[in-house]
Amino acid sequence: MSDPAKPSYFWGLLTRLGLLTALAAAAADQASKLWLLFVFDIGARQRVAVTPFLDLVLVWNKGISYGLFQQDGPVGQWALLILKAVAVGLLWLWLARAETRLTAVSLGLIIGGALGNAIDRFAYGAVADFILLHLTTATWFFSWYVFNLADVAIVAGVAGLLYESLVGERAAKAP
After folding, report:
1. What is the pTM of this model?
2. Looking at 29, 55, 120, 151, which residue is catalytic?
3. What is the pLDDT of residue 79?
4. Catalytic: 3?
5. Is 120 tagged catalytic?
6. Is residue 72 part of a domain?
């Protein structure tokens, strides 16, 4: 008989927190995309200026981060979905061993972001990206890549893991 206080391979003390975070991140991502696609109808609009540095514009990403490894055919799309499923599975195993709330929340954000983008890839054959950050001056223009809330969750999760590994209580400290 297993001890409920002892984590298993698939469930740990903070797994519930991580999974709730993942569900919240995926739900926020999907809600924003559904509203932009089917209510706001961003596909029928050109670039929509929200602030002097933020625009909404629809881009269908058939690749991975930053539009790398574009996949137009179904084999490539399914390969990316399988890769994403394996990554989420490995992250879940890590989550089952999480010892701090920050690790659990960070992993939950990464899992939720991956799931949000995987839902797009399954439903549309590509990921819907819509946030464009840019900086314009009289002589210079800089434009970041177009992203979505799932990407924000993934970056925030990675930042949380980096913070914990470099600054957190369990980080390696110099003597």
Report:
1. 0.83
2. 151
3. 73
4. no
5. no
6. yes
